Amino acid sequence: MVEAKRRQPSVIPFTEFEGMKPPYSNLLKEAGPDQYYDLLVPEEILEMIAEQTNLFASQTSQPGKQSLDQATVMSRNRFELLLQYLHFSDNLSVDRNDRIAKIRPLIDALNATFQKYYSPKEDVCVDESQVPFRGRIIFRQYNKSKRHKYVCPTAQYSSTAPCRSRSTNKVTVSMAGGEKSSLNMTIR
Description:
Blueprint lengths: L18 E2 L3 H4 L5 H8 L2 H18 L15 H10 L18 H14 E2 L5 E8 L8 E2 L7 E9 L12 E6 L5 E6 L1
Antiparallel strand pairs: 1-2, 3-5, 4-5, 6-7
């Protein structure tokens, strides 16, 4: 008796390079966390943050407030002032229909850097979780049956979990806006 063959799903072979792309993988074999950080968060991103923060401070500065000029030692008041004016995009040129327009330049710059230096492994898993959050943000969700009724959804990416992926080597972190907003990780 011949057993009927089940229909097998077509599996696309994974042929992409995994991990840090050459020549960076060879350069960073003995590297510490600070060297990885310097590679994945380049100076251009920090300069963009400083430029946008200074622009916002100059647009909203009030007489009698301390300026954001460079200092050798940071006091608590200076830290609070920097935190108050921290910005990632120009308020005058943001798209009002884009819910994450204020952080889009940072997300785009980080995605470009990550895609330049890193390729995900064949096994990819994306996990969504919720963090208790009571602040004012459009992504906050309400669930009356939970102990923490207000939460902000987050996504975690793991390249070592036993989930099958048909993707190539591009991982993009994005936030989707709409009636139900959440963090999404798109693997293309």
